[in-house]
Amino acid sequence: MKWSFLPPEDGDRRYLAVNADEAEPGTFKDRMLIDFDPHILLEGIAICMHACRIDTAYIYIRGEYHAQAKTLQRAVDEAYEYNVFGKDSFLGKINSLAPHCYIHRGAGAYVCGEETALLESLEGKRGWPRIKPPFPAIAGAFARPTIINNVETIAMVGPIVQHGPDWFKSMGTQRPEDAPPTVPASFGPKLFGVSGHVNRPGVYEDELGIKLSTLIETHCGGMRNGKKFKAAIPGGIAMGILGTDQYDAVLDFDVGKKYNCLGLGTAGVIVMDQDTDMVAVTRNIIRFLAHESCGQCTPCREGTTWMYKTLSRIEAGDGTSKDLDLLLELAGSMGAMPGTTICGLADGANWAVRTILNKFRPDFEARVRKHRYVSLSTAGVR
Amino acid sequence: MAWIVKNSAAAQIDRRDQPYLDQDLKTHIETDVLPRYPTKRAALLPILHAVQHKHNWIPYQALEEVADFLDIAPAEVADTATFYEDFWLQPKGKYLIMICQSITCELMGQVNLLEKVKAKLGISVGQTTTDDRFTLMTAECLGSCDTAPVALVNESLHEKLTPENFDRILDSLS
């Protein structure tokens, strides 16, 4: 847990920032949580503030969530009224702090969902991710120790405190006995937001380790119009793709290593049927990332735009087979994992392009012209 | 794209005598917004939201007034304001239509919807109708993929759109 990284108290302020800047395409679980149960989030915030001796919490909610910001504000007002927060807080009587909880609205920048960019935005600056270290737990918002957690994480705190960790661990998948320590255990329930070509899209809560096929057939009523499954994005567009033969993929935190994609991400599953044009899908994903790149690191700023131009060219039928290799080369050069950018936005572009191209190469091959080598002599040069 | 900058060296700022950041807003900011944050600059985003809510957009004169009010440089305010796409530094129509163009919405028929709306309003993306009623924009994921395609009209989200039902929604706006 991130909470344990906090340094010992030095008497000054510490902050909690709740990340409700949910902008990953395919992800809408936080919106559901805020719409239907904002108080479970506030309960988690109060517990976290008490446990870590924090007196100020900010909920960073994205600018496009107008209705959700109002819902949340009403819930916070109610919490103040019942002395959960405020100077007469019942928590304050135990730990002699006066906990406050404020809502901070973003203004339409995907990159502010990155934790250090969120802090910059909270401080009234442009949302540029910071270089780590120092990590936010040491020097975060206003250069003070800060905990940043997602809405879903904080909302889970209350139920875990109430039912105990054993209850939480009774769900999900165990780590195999002989697995190396790099394989994560996947305990607990998870909100899967399924969208795309299924009969009943929506948010479904189930244990981690559910099969993709079960999720689609049992919860979502199967594929729309009886079409065949072609591909699925396991968790937000930045996480790569699951191919046609990975319909039975087990969705847990180890999904990345098992099925050659980046990871489970936000568990926002986007399902695509047999008629989907994978070139258009890739172009859309890269258009999004090119549009939302903050422009701080060159490989991301230039690379995403370059890839977008190349993919648009391929989609229009003007691409050559060299373009596919160019895309792979570009993709491999950008991201925090190759070590060329500060945050992980470019990794998303990297993995999305690489996995789609590797798993659906024939779709791309069919759209590009074969590159023909023209020798000087055949071109008429002597 | 947040990082595209325009040459503004010779830009003229339209001014009016009446301040945009009037006493009402200042009182609201001093009592409700500033106490929440340890630094003054942190109140910038909420202030810009408040100014935009009141005037429908944020004129450059307002940016200067905000800078004055917060004791920071106008360039710092402009730096933040230009980064975020929700802040309008030029006038927009009474209704801002933002059609989601991210992947799920595109899979579910956003392209067709956008074309129909463009044809209906007679404008392309980024433009405002001549009667200043509608501004058409595309948006990146609005976080409602289960009901795709979706569009945001000012502050209300419209879901499960087809060209026909969105047509009716637009007609019902005064």
SSE blueprint and pairings:
The complex is a heterodimer of chains A (382) and B (174).
Chain A: E1 15-20, H1 29-36, H2 38-51, E2 56-61, H3 66-81, H4 90-95, E3 100-105, H5 115-122, E4 146-150, H6 151-163, H7 165-169, E5 172-173, E6 186-187, E7 189-196, E8 202-207, E9 210-211, H8 212-219, E10 229-233, E11 250-251, H9 255-259, E12 268-273, H10 278-292, H11 298-315, H12 321-332, H13 345-359, H14 361-365
Parallel strand pairs in A: 1-2, 1-4, 2-3, 7-12
Antiparallel strand pairs in A: 5-6, 7-8, 9-11, 10-12
Chain B: H1 23-33, H2 44-55, H3 60-70, H4 74-83, E1 95-100, H5 103-107, H6 110-121, E2 134-139, E3 151-153, E4 156-158, H7 163-172
Parallel strand pairs in B: 1-2
Antiparallel strand pairs in B: 1-3, 3-4
Helix pairs in contact in B: 2-3, 3-4
Question: How would you characterize this protein structure?
Answer:
Chain A has 382 residues and is an alpha/beta fold. Chain A folds into three domains: 3-163, 3-Layer(aba) Sandwich (Rossmann fold); 183-273, Ubiquitin-like (UB roll) (Roll); 278-368, Up-down Bundle (de novo design (two linked rop proteins)), CATH 1.20.1440. Chain A is built from 14 helices and twelve strands. In chain A, the strands form four sheets. A four-stranded parallel sheet of chain A has the order 3-2-1-4, sandwiched between helices. A four-stranded mixed sheet of chain A has the order 8-7-12-10, with helices on one face. Chain A has a two-stranded antiparallel sheet with strand order 5-6. In chain A, β7 and β8 form a beta hairpin. Chain A is globular. The N and C termini of chain A lie far apart (71 Å). The relative contact order of chain A is 0.11. Chain B has helices at 23-33, 44-55, 60-70, 74-83, 103-107, 110-121, 163-172, and strands at 95-100, 134-139, 151-153, 156-158. In chain B, strands 2-1-3-4 form a four-stranded mixed sheet, with helices on one face. The longest helix of chain B is centred in the N-terminal third of the chain and has 12 residues, at 44-55. Chain B has seven helices and four strands, in the order ααααβααβββα. By secondary structure, chain B is an alpha+beta fold. Chain B folds into two domains: 16-83, Orthogonal Bundle (Arc Repressor Mutant, subunit A), CATH 1.10.10; 95-172, Glutaredoxin (3-Layer(aba) Sandwich), CATH 3.40.30. In chain B, β3 and β4 form a beta hairpin. In chain B, 39% of the residues are buried. The two termini of chain B are 32 Å apart. The model of chain B has no long low-confidence stretch (mean pLDDT 91). In chain B, α2 runs antiparallel to α3 (60-70) and α3 (60-70) packs across α4 (74-83). Classes of the chains: A alpha/beta (382), B alpha+beta (174). At the A-B interface, β3, β7, β12 and α10 of A face α2, α4 and α5 of B.
